[in-house]
Amino acid sequence: MNSNELPHGNAFKPDWEVTPTQAQKWLDSGENIMIVDVRVQPEWDFAHVKGSVLVPLDQLETRAPEIEGMLEENPGCKVLTLCHHGVRSLKAAAFLRDLGIPDVKSIAGGIELWSRTADTNLPRYERQGMSVWPAGSKPV
What we know:
Layout: E1 17-18, H1 20-28, E2 33-37, H2 41-46, E3 53-54, H3 60-73, E4 78-82, H4 87-98, E5 105-107, H5 110-117, E6 125-128, E7 131-134
Parallel strand pairs: 1-5, 2-3, 2-4, 4-5
Antiparallel strand pairs: 6-7
């Protein structure tokens, strides 16, 4: 891990990403944050960040008004997107920014890195399609 608690060689994009530890610090300090988790239901069921909102990436376009409504009720709220490794959440952040939601950021490394740095009690997993199983074990 480097000084940002990211794997060496990680192409961290500070204009687009925050680290899991930074996001956890914001949550712990009571910062006004909404975490939009864009994974699928089986991933969410296996492990999720407390207080996050599940909006799978393939539902983001149709459920965007729901997110916009939550932000209208909660002015000044920072929006962070989360997935398994950080790819889907970057796509989600770009989509939400295109809708006019300012400064949306993806959580770098996803819940995988979150479970290694910000909350080591959060279980790690592997997935293929809609199947999810504990990291290091064989698929069920």
